[in-house]
Amino acid sequence: MSDAPDVDELTPPQRTLMGPGPSDVHPRVLRAMSTPLVGHLDPSFIDIMNEVQELLRYTFRTDNQWTIPVSGTGSASMEAAIGNLVEPGDTMLVPTNGYFGGRMKSMAERAGGEVVEVEAPWGEPLDPADVQAAFDEHQPDIFGFVHAETSTGVLQPNVPELTDIAHSHDAYVVADTVTSLGGVEFRADEWDVDVAYSGPQKCLSCPPGASPLTLNDRAMDKVLSREELTRSWYLDLSLLEGYWGDDRSYHHTAPITNVYALREALRLVAEEGIEERWDRHLRVAGALKSGVEAMGLEMNAADDYWLPSLNAVRVPDGADDGEVISYLLEQYDLEIASGLGDLDGDIFRIGCMGHSANPKNVTYLLASLADALDAQGVDVDGDEALDAAAAQLRG
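The structure corresponding to this sequence follows.
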């Protein structure tokens, strides 16, 4: 047998996280993760579970009883939503306007559903008229849409109009709020969304591991009346009901420290106030947008559906996105990301989320990006960018 490996003490670099996630984590959240571990059925932890559920209801803007953190990353809450709601023989309508609509499609097909698509180009939102036409043609049972498309920087407007269309056809609505929850206005109950899922590492500024999910009674009734078991035992909400419902009976060992972290992150949301938090993201991201445009760069999304939490910026002529990203990481310990799918190589994805959405980070990002582009010989005006951002922040 080989000798024990000689591994140094963990010393990750100190990055400024301005990519599509994760975002910078608040020190209070990190401290919460270092507090003593208790059992996942300990009476004190059950109290914490109750508090997390109440805080999630506040953040989702819902009274749904079925509001829980799924043990896993945002993709786990996504699969819990789709894998439980979609039964074999169901038809799900999904969008084509971004990478995560494609993931919805894959998950629905794995759940045994038939998938039909509503078309929209990458970089544009769904048009309600096209959604109406797709419903008239296909009569789907479930409609999924991405509220904040991380791959394109597009915010879906007109959500109540989309849910009205779906419900007029007796369909269920599933919303992907991974890049909007806690940073961009989303109102689950008022907008009549049946199911919404999210991730903690974006606008909530929490390490991944316990991911928000909410279902209204109508959706949960469908889940509990399924004729076939879901294909995932671990994410079966009819079983998780025993743990997160009134009984608090054993199902699995919850990621206790991640639940601690989520609780503290959600406490920060409640202390700031959800509407005030939406306003902060809009104001700070507005400064970022003004700065990159003053620099001479273009946003990927039009102003009418610009997504404050994820700014997709077109890569200028003469620049290599990978080299810019590497330069920022190596010279400034600053993380941004390149495009996905159809926009690979065409955009920078710059997050402005949660604890990272602050004037200091925006100023640092603009100055660093200007230097990185200048190093490639791209003519940009960093001073103009900083002046425009400062003017926006002054209001």
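The first helix runs from residue 27 to 33.
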